[in-house]
């Protein structure tokens, strides 16, 4: 299976100004997740978060649109990388499901920050406790799916807007990833990106048999 990832500049190769922006962004994410986890999402004001990182609210809003955005940055970064990869990935004759699976695996491999997996776990736990984060996540997922769908229609020359296959392909991909994420997050061990990728591959592999699963009542 090909996983031709998009080549992106490493932080070390970025201009100094961009490196500073990335460091500020990462500090906001790490500090926000730590504060939200200890005191609750609603127990930390935006002013308190900015003070803890020693940045202005203006700087915050140049980086994130809301507290929900900074709290969900780890998974949102993953899906942003997925869209980037899907936009530039070399196309061949493989099934579209394999194409989008490879794009998401490449995006996952690009999440190289040592703290990423910890941040994802904290973000997921907060989302289960915070209705506004849950709603924000659903809206983000919908926007991401629509953007990915537009990319597929354009790059694969799918001209019929009523063709349901690309949307269904993306929907099952997202469902498989959420299943994998649930299994990975529930593990008592500190899961790695590799473990998450393995769970995701297993979930995708289970999709064909899930569509042919037949009713077999338990004997009484």
Annotation keywords:
220 residues; mainly alpha; Arc Repressor Mutant, subunit A; globular; Tetracycline Repressor, domain 2; disordered N terminus
Description:
The protein has eleven helices and no strands. Helices cover 70% and strands 0% of the residues. The model is unreliable at 1-9 (pLDDT under 50). The protein is globular and about 55 Å long. By secondary structure, the protein is mainly alpha-helical. The protein has two domains: 10-66, Homeodomain-like (Arc Repressor Mutant, subunit A, Orthogonal Bundle), CATH 1.10.10; 72-211, Orthogonal Bundle (Tetracycline Repressor, domain 2), CATH 1.10.357.10. The longest helix has 25 residues, at 131-155. It has helices at residues 16-39, 46-53, 57-63, 67-71, 73-88, 96-109, 116-129, 131-155, 165-186, 193-205, 207-211.
At CATH level 3, the topology of the largest domain is Tetracycline Repressor, domain 2
Distance between the termini: 44 Å
CATH class of the largest domain: Mainly Alpha
The tally of beta strands, per DSSP, is 0
Note the overall shape: globular
Helix content: 55-70%
Strand content: under 5%
Residue ranges: pLDDT <50 for 5 or more in a row? 1-9
Secondary-structure topology with pairs:
Elements: H1 16-39, H2 46-53, H3 57-63, H4 67-71, H5 73-88, H6 96-109, H7 116-129, H8 131-155, H9 165-186, H10 193-205, H11 207-211
Helix pairs in contact: 1-2, 1-7, 5-6, 5-8, 6-9, 6-10, 7-8, 8-9, 9-10
Summed up, what is this model?
The protein is built from eleven helices and no strands.
């Amino acid at each position: 299976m090909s996983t031709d990832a998009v080549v992106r500049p490493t932080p070390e190769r970025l201009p100094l100004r961009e490196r500073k922006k990335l460091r500020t962004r990462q500090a906001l994410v790490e500090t926000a997740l730590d504060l939200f986890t200890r005191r609750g999402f609603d127990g930390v004001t935006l002013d308190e978060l900015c003070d803890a990182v020693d940045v202005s609210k203006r700087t915050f809003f140049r980086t994130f649109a809301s507290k929900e955005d900074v709290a969900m940055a780890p998974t949102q970064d993953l899906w942003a990388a997925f869209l980037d990869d899907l936009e530039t990935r070399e196309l061949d004759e493989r099934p579209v499901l394999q194409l989008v699976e490879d794009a998401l695996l490449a995006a996952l491999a690009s999440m190289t920050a040592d703290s990423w997996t910890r941040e994802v776990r904290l973000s997921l736990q907060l989302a289960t406790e915070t209705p506004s984060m849950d709603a924000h996540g659903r809206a983000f997922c919908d926007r991401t799916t629509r953007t990915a769908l537009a990319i597929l229609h354009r790059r694969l020359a799918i001209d019929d807007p009523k063709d349901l296959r690309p949307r269904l392909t993306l929907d099952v991909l997202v469902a498989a990833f959420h299943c994998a994420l649930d299994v990975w997050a529930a593990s008592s061990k500190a899961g790695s990106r590799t473990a998450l990728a393995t769970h995701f591959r297993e979930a995708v592999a289970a999709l064909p048999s899930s569509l042919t699963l037949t009713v077999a009542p338990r004997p009484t």
